[in-house]
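Handout, page 2. Input:
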Amino acid sequence: MTTAKKRVSLISPCFNEEANIEELYRRVREVMERSPQYDFEYLFIDNASTDRTLEKLRKIAEQDSRVKIIVNTRNFGHLRSPYWGIIQTSGDVTVYMASDLQDPPELIQEFLTAWEQGYKVVLAVKPISQTNPLIHRLRKLYYRFLDAISEVSIVKDATGFGLYDRVVLDKLREIHDPYPYMRGLICELGYPIKTIPFDQPRRLRGVSKNNAYTLYDLAMLGIVSHSVVPIRLAAMVGFLTGFLSILVALVFLILKLVLWNAFPVGIAPIVIGMFFMFGVVLLFIGILGEYIASIHTYVRNRPVVVERERINFNSADNSGHQ
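Output:
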């Protein structure tokens, strides 16, 4: 009696990665074919690329039925599309990696070894990176700050590149988060996490899709999704500032009444006080706005993504290439 092979799903989101997609597929295929004890599928979710990415993916899928493709109707962003892709996988375990070749496919074997040892989550972490040193340093500081204020410990220097057991993804499917912060959600679930350090290479081809806005969006989402500390601090400082403002106003009033002619009230303290109060108020309105925006995303109840097309999902046999 033969035992059914375990099935490994691999997922890579892509947007305008025509320069990298063929090499990525080749390297992943080579890694997986060195492990014949597993069946595998490789899912690409294309975020409405405007270059030849989809054309190249179609050619790959024609030659290998293990390659599946989801094509989105539009660009649904750097969080929603990858999340939708990862919860569409069907394997006993899923490996997520970016399509820019900065996540080395050669680490897949180490992930699977740790999984066979019993770990439900295996994450690659990048204490060293060949990317922009300033950005890398700011990211390290941010994740340490996030870990300090979060209700659960956040894995430092993780990018999402890693392995996730089916039981973990089943929990994510139950959550129905319309705008998920994947790294935080994984830590919220509480499964033991195996970390594997790697030296992240520089992007050799193509253009990074991250910009100042996407980095800000990711940073604020991580904070508002996993910590109430900022809004609590805003409330506490607001109460304290309000109390001190009232106290200072009373002192000025008493001094003026007692020393009417000897105590002239100048314009400087009034202007300074006004600008200080407006600065504090606007800062706290901004923090409050981030939390309200997060709530608004949930109550709209819109789909994570809308698909235009699926390729190779109805293949009679996905265990081997055509």
